[in-house]
Amino acid sequence: MKLILTADVANLGGPGDLVDVKDGYGRNFLLPRGLAIVATRGAMKQVETIRRTQEGKRIRDLDHAKEIAGELQGVGTVTVTAKSAGQGGKLFGSVSPADIVGAVRTSGGPNLDKRLVDTKGHIKTTGAHQVTVRLHPDVAVELPLDVQGV
């Protein structure tokens, strides 16, 4: 089965790569998770668009990771608003890495990939929390997070 990857897949390739995988792996794993699309003539035209959008989020090397780490530390405490369950500061659901990435972006920080954010479990209460952003195997940034209920 020929597929075009839309995200990085370990031991397979990166966004925009044309890969040939076994039918079951493509049909049961890659396609349902949105990691790939079927390689049709129309999809081949979208390969460059896929590469450009992923390139904006990609961290190129150690120096680039350190530069982004400096930008993240300059942002300071990031505020995330979530639906509160009322008394006691509990939340309906939890704060996801996508919520954190959106809050970083709105506070003037860099455009990150949500897979880089490690919440160390579920964030289900309001208040101050710490999350780790792993930009590179050698660069990790502790980001202070303030969760506020609505």
Automatic annotation (TrEMBL):
<dbReference type="InterPro" id="IPR020069">
    <property type="entry name" value="Ribosomal_bL9_C"/>
</dbReference>
<keyword id="KW-0699">rRNA-binding</keyword>
<dbReference type="InterPro" id="IPR000244">
    <property type="entry name" value="Ribosomal_bL9"/>
</dbReference>
<keyword id="KW-0687">Ribonucleoprotein</keyword>
<dbReference type="InterPro" id="IPR009027">
    <property type="entry name" value="Ribosomal_bL9/RNase_H1_N"/>
</dbReference>
<dbReference type="GO" id="GO:0005840">
    <property type="term" value="C:ribosome"/>
</dbReference>
<protein>
    <recommendedName>
        <fullName>Large ribosomal subunit protein bL9</fullName>
    </recommendedName>
</protein>
<dbReference type="Pfam" id="PF01281">
    <property type="entry name" value="Ribosomal_L9_N"/>
</dbReference>
<feature type="domain" description="Ribosomal protein L9">
    <location>
        <begin position="13"/>
        <end position="40"/>
    </location>
</feature>
<comment type="similarity">
    <text>Belongs to the bacterial ribosomal protein bL9 family.</text>
</comment>
<dbReference type="InterPro" id="IPR036791">
    <property type="entry name" value="Ribosomal_bL9_C_sf"/>
</dbReference>
<dbReference type="InterPro" id="IPR020594">
    <property type="entry name" value="Ribosomal_bL9_bac/chp"/>
</dbReference>
<keyword id="KW-0689">Ribosomal protein</keyword>
<dbReference type="Pfam" id="PF03948">
    <property type="entry name" value="Ribosomal_L9_C"/>
</dbReference>
<dbReference type="InterPro" id="IPR036935">
    <property type="entry name" value="Ribosomal_bL9_N_sf"/>
</dbReference>
<keyword id="KW-0694">RNA-binding</keyword>
<dbReference type="InterPro" id="IPR020070">
    <property type="entry name" value="Ribosomal_bL9_N"/>
</dbReference>
<comment type="function">
    <text>Binds to the 23S rRNA.</text>
</comment>
